[in-house]
Amino acid sequence: MADVSAALVKQLRERTGAGMMDCKKALADTEGDIEAAVDWLRQKGLSQAAKKAGRTAADGLIGVHTAGTSGAIVEVNAETDFVARNETFQDFVGKVTELALSAGGDLETLKQTIYPETGRTVEEELTQTIATIGENMKLSRSAALSVDRGAVSAYVHNQLAPNLGKIGVLVALEADVESEKLEGLAKQLAMHVAAAQPNAVSQADIDPAVVERERRVLEQQARDSGKPENIIEKMVEGRLRKFYEEIALLDQLFVVDGESRVRDVIKKASDDLGTEVKVAGFVRFSLGEGAESESEEESAASA
């Protein structure tokens, strides 16, 4: 049996919401492999890890900025919501988001980009802003999307100031046309992504390892029900379809009308515009995820 540390048990409990003893047993049975332990708990019906939300670990703001057929998004973390409502902080995040567009969304390039008005780099300006406000801050991540022709739109949820909030989304649509209708669709899809939280544009974009892992969990759940093998196969395929409908954008139910699949909405837009419309990509930032992923990487590095 693996030596299960209290820290590992705590980490598994935070990820899955399962009880302490269940987490200990899961880790013991999987030789301390936390990913395998997550699957073990799911197979036993003891975890809601796949659907757990709200794992935000920091405050601050998400900023979005679009210009023509390009857009950028950044996350800047602070310690408190009080600072997120500070005009100096909001002004900094807004300007950095605009600069992220010229940096192509690359975080390291953005940090070395010259900040307007002061001549300092963005990284140096962040240090100055920390000294001015008196609270620690971090430029956690950035991304950008662009298309040759089409539309790029942004949406901010829980907006605290124009283009600044707690959740930010960029959506890029490719089409051999530029129109208000296409821009309107891109905006609606950005709102959809904020609410529905897809992980990929289509089934083909989902990591095969993720699909295989899900299939194994579903197969074990089905076998535990005691059903015959032919029924198990049908159960697994049905649940996999539901899995795709939850995480693949094109398979999701469009939140704007609550009836159509996103792929059907895209097809109708293509027919109406007389040209093919494709989802070139999307980015969704939820406040705290950037700081959280960095924290996990640091924990792994020190393990």
From TrEMBL:
The protein's role, per its UniProt record: Associates with the EF-Tu.GDP complex and induces the exchange of GDP to GTP. It remains bound to the aminoacyl-tRNA.EF-Tu.GTP complex up to the GTP hydrolysis stage on the ribosome.
Subcellular location(s) of the protein: Cytoplasm
Pfam families registered for this protein in UniProt: EF_TS
Keyword terms of this UniProt record: Cytoplasm, Elongation factor, Protein biosynthesis
Record GO terms (molecular function): translation elongation factor activity
Family: Belongs to the EF-Ts family.
InterPro entries assigned to the protein according to its UniProt record, in alphabetical order: EF-Ts_dimer_sf, Transl_elong_EFTs/EF1B, Transl_elong_EFTs/EF1B_dimer, Transl_elong_Ts_CS, UBA-like_sf
GO cellular component terms, A-Z: cytoplasm
Major location category of this protein: cytoplasm
Lineage, broadest ranks: Bacteria, Pseudomonadati, Pseudomonadota, Alphaproteobacteria, Rhodospirillales
Keyword Protein biosynthesis carried by entry: yes
Residues covered by region (Involved in Mg(2+) ion dislocation from EF-Tu): 80-83
Domain Translation elongation factor EFTs/EF1B dimerisation: start-end pairs: 71-289
PROSITE patterns: EF_TS_1 (PS01126), EF_TS_2 (PS01127)
The protein, known as: Elongation factor Ts
